[in-house]
Amino acid sequence: MEVKTAIEKAKNNEQTAFNYLLDTFWNDVYGFQLKRTENENDAEDITIQTFSKAFDKIHTYNPEYEFKTWLITISKNLHIDLVRKRKSSISNTVNTRDNDEYHQIMDESPSAEDNIITQQNLAKLLKDIKKLKPHYQEVINLRYFQELSYQEISDQLNEPMSNVKVKLLRAKKLLAEIIKKT
Length: 182
Fold this sequence. Notes:
Layout: H1 3-11, H2 15-37, H3 40-56, H4 67-89, H5 112-119, H6 122-130, H7 134-145, H8 150-157, H9 161-181
């Protein structure tokens, strides 16, 4: 499959096209982030977010530019956002009561999607999960109900771990949207 063809198919929500684009450009985006962050976990998280955002906004891609450049730009902006978020989430407020110094560090709270999902009762959550496409239902079930690791899910589905991570991220976003609507 050619990249231009894959992009057009992805615009029509064809899963094989998403998989092709992910497999083709994963190492480029991950390598770019690894150099920037010097942290494998951050690089992987940002790469997953990059593909998730790119796939959500694939219809806005301008074919006059290279797809890889578009992905790297998204990735770079996500990294900048992460750095800003980290700087603002740690506030070093000094409290001088009784001549003691206190440093207040804000807790990293779960994402908005995580909060919405956990607020629902199980029965309603299961009904909402049933509204997802079967492959998203399966990955949610394996991760959160069977509590499998990414590697175990990858082995069970016979898919690359990067696909599993992006699929799970998309499933969580879709599920959060379904929950918000109901």
